Amino acid sequence: MGKGQKEAAEMAHVELVVCPHCWSKFPPADALWISEHSDLMGDPRLGPEHPRRFRPDRFDPTGAALDFRNFPCRRLACPQCHLEVPHAYFEAPSFFISVVGAPACGKSYFLTSMTWRLRAILPKEFALLFSDAHNLFNRRLQEYEAALFLHPNPNALVNLPKTEVHGDIYFAVLKDGQPSQYLIPFVFKVSPAANHPLADKADKFARVLTIYDNAGESYLPGQDSVANPVTRHLGASDGIFFLFDPLQDVRFRKRLPSNLTDKDVGGLARVGYQQIPLRQEVILHEMLRRTEMYRPALRGNTPIRLIVVVTKLDIWAPLLDGPLPWVWKSAGNISGVATSEIEEVSRRVQKLLEETCPEVVGAALTACPSCLFIPVSSTGTAPEMDPASGQSGFRPAKIRPMWVEVPILYCLSHWAKGLVGTIRPKAAVSKTDSSDGKLSG
Fold first, then answer.
1. CA distances (Å), 61 to each of 7, 32, 67, 72, 123, in order?
2. Are 378 and 264 in contact (CB under 8 A)?
3. Average pLDDT value for the chain
């Protein structure tokens, strides 16, 4: 093992690093380093505008590798695709989540509200540190959070931009002489805090939460190829969130009185003027087909873990039989997730969808018999129309997300053992007997 390999290996806490871009696995000692000097531009895989990747043999006293112009370097890259791999992947195992949905189903709003809520509740309720593992990778999401939750004018109408199928949310890599696009993931480090029961084993139980968010059009049949492998993350995912917008389905909308459906001024206008309504189960089937195709090479026989996230709950909540319960309760200085309460709500939502959109339920349960159906509202309020411009948007002052943190809390409690605990059914607390004011959504 050369000196550069030894330095990379010594900083690692994992035996194998999983690249979040191409999902190749490599020993930490095989990582490439990224040059810092401006003269050292041009990488054979990434093109002339990217710094050269290299294997170092010289280091400064702080452990930084020295490039060929003696500049200290600390960034690391995958030996296969040459894309940068954040240091967090060398420090903790990965936990991959794919967020999937039809065009205009609200994925960007859901992700923005979910991460904003996680930043607040994970440290306070679950004694977990939740931080950005790479600010450049997360820049788009950080900007969305600022727009919805830190806007200088809380009464302004805000509308998040649509996720595109091309542009600066992708990396371009030359593979066998052919350019390929790789989606830039959102990456977070989740680790036990000092007051967590496993604080003394934080290195062992920490995870790198990696979230993939494609444009909905990427899941239309024929949109994924060798040159455009932007949805291959499905094969590597620990969990898949399929966002289902029930208000895009005319059968579901017929269950609601007009005074409620009229609130969805943006979504219903879009659906109402479509000559051929978009069938969301087509996206679901295509997603499942790709997952089954990619999964053997990336995850072997690991079964698909699927959660159907049913959006716009603030509009259709009256169709649920009863209120939503609290989903966590404090046990001493730390909270646990009431998974039985979540599963009971899932059964109520599943029953409603079986009556209105049975093909969606059937496809989901066929692929994942333990699939959950979790209701959420990313904003807790309906969009408003600006009469002057005709554009719809949300007023930050009115945004109150509902249950957006529940899907990831359930995932962490079930599939990342040790980070988030669960509470037994008898310990679950109802909305009427809660005295601590915890918000469930």
1. 12, 19, 14, 10, 35
2. no
3. 88
For position 263, what pLDDT does the model report?
Answer: 59
Residue 127 and residue 332: Cα distance in Å, rounded? 12
Instruction: Specify which residues 158 forms β-bridges with.
Output: 394
The CA distances from residue 119 to 112, 127, 339, in Å, are: 11, 11, 21
Contacts of 20 (CB under 8 A, 6+ apart): 85, 86, 89, 94, 96, 185, 187, 208, 210
432 C-beta neighbours (distance < 10 Å), count? 7
The single-letter code of the amino acid at 195 is N
Q: Name the pTM for this structure.
A: 0.90
Question: Which class for 146: exposed (0-12), middle (13-18), buried (19 or more C-beta within 10 A)?
Answer: middle
- Summarised one tens digit per residue, pLDDT across range 52-104 is 999 999 999 999 999 999 999 999 999 999 999 999 999 999 999 999 999 88
Alpha helices in 244-338 (DSSP H): 250-253, 258-261, 265-272, 280-299, 313-316
CA distance 106 to 24: 31
In contact, 23 and 40? CB cutoff 8 Å: no
CA distance 276 to 283: 15
Give strand ranges (E) for 35-177. 41-43, 47-51, 53-54, 65-66, 72-73, 76-77, 94-101, 128-132, 170-175
Q: In this predicted structure, what is the pLDDT of residue 430?
A: 38
Count CA atoms within 13 Å of residue 363 on its CB side. 17
Coil, strand or helix at 356: helix
- Angle formed by the axes of helices 339-356 and 358-367, to 10°? 130
Unique residue bearing structure tokens 């943190």: 405
**Spatial separation of the C-alpha atoms in residues 304 and 389, rounded to whole Å:** 44
Provide the token pair at 239.
Answer: 């969990």
